[in-house]
Amino acid sequence: MPRISQVDIHQVKQWLDDASTIVLDIRDPMSYATGHIPTARHMDNENVEEIINSLDKEQNVVICCYHGNSSQGAAGFFMEQGFSDVHSMMGGFEEWKHSYPAEQG
Fold it and tell me: Which one, of 21, 42, 12, 14, lies nearest residue 103 by Cα?
């Protein structure tokens, strides 16, 4: 399996400010509803196929989880599906919420 690119929260914030990336949040639905990165889409086993089919495989994709561990496996899965610009966010949402605002709902 190819090496998984890991990016820090500040790089993700910059990409979001430039509107050049999509963040996929793989935490459980309740955690996502309580707080998530603005514009992040929730992804789970129920909608992963729909998301894969709806995204441009060349688009910059960042996978976010709780602490940056589970997102590595999800990023690898996306690479296996043909996505070329996929990253795991180091520190996950737990690190994000200490530096940047979160969205609820």
Answer: 42
Tokens of 77: 């899965």
pTM of the model: 0.95
64 is catalytic: no
| Catalytic residue from among 26, 65, 74, 86 | 65
Question: What local confidence, expressed as pLDDT, does residue 9 receive?
Answer: 98
Q: Where are the beta strands (DSSP E) in the chain?
A: 5-7, 21-25, 41-42, 60-64, 86-89
Question: Do the beta carbons of residue 16 and residue 62 sit within 8 Å?
Answer: no
Domains of the chain as residue ranges with CATH: 5-55+62-99 (3.40.250.10)
Of 63, 83, 84, 81, give the one whose Cα is nearest residue 72. 63
